[in-house]
């Protein structure tokens, strides 16, 4: 029969094991200030005007190669969609009963496309493309939407200069208070 001493011994051994296990775990620096290097790794957002686009450039032809290697499985051979959404099409469909929201029909800024691809694509390996590869595939998608020419070299300047068809279709919600009523039904008719 076990006595109080053996129970205390068991609890002591369990605590010692837990302490040893915890001490062996990596320390994540919780509660410490992030270094400039750590912040730089996460601070990769790009503004609509192109602020913070990284150095680099690529051609639309380079982009087709990147697309075929990294994007085609989800978005289709002609960017028509599949597992992932369609990236082309939808011209003048936003005010119809069935809007088709694609890069060319809906997105307001080419710089936002670069930002999204760099952060989230390819789906199975986000942030695995180099800046040049992101410039390339962004250019290819824009070209397939007839927004830039096939011979364009894509870089920070060219992306910031692209005027997307729906750029003026967005607005800043500057309602003065939270009690303002937003359109929730039949909104297409209001447009």
Structural commentary:
Helices cover 41% and strands 2% of the residues. It is mainly α and 191 residues long. It has a domain at 54-164: Cytochrome Bc1 Complex, Chain D, domain 2 (Orthogonal Bundle), CATH 1.10.760.10. It has a two-stranded antiparallel sheet. It starts with a helix and ends with a helix.
Looking at this protein, list some descriptive labels:
191 residues, mainly alpha, Cytochrome Bc1 Complex, Chain D, domain 2, 41% helix, extended
What's the multimeric state? Answer: single chain
Strand content: under 5%
Overall radius of gyration: 25 Å
Order of helices and strands: HHEHHHHEHH
CATH class term of the domain at 54-164: Mainly Alpha
In short:
With 191 residues, this protein is mostly helical. The protein has helices spanning 4-24, 36-42, 60-70, 72-75, 110-120, 131-144, 156-161, 187-190; strands at residues 58-59, 153-154.
Question: Helices, strands, pairings?
Answer:
Elements: H1 4-24, H2 36-42, E1 58-59, H3 60-70, H4 72-75, H5 110-120, H6 131-144, E2 153-154, H7 156-161, H8 187-190
Antiparallel strand pairs: 1-2
Helix pairs in contact: 3-6, 5-6
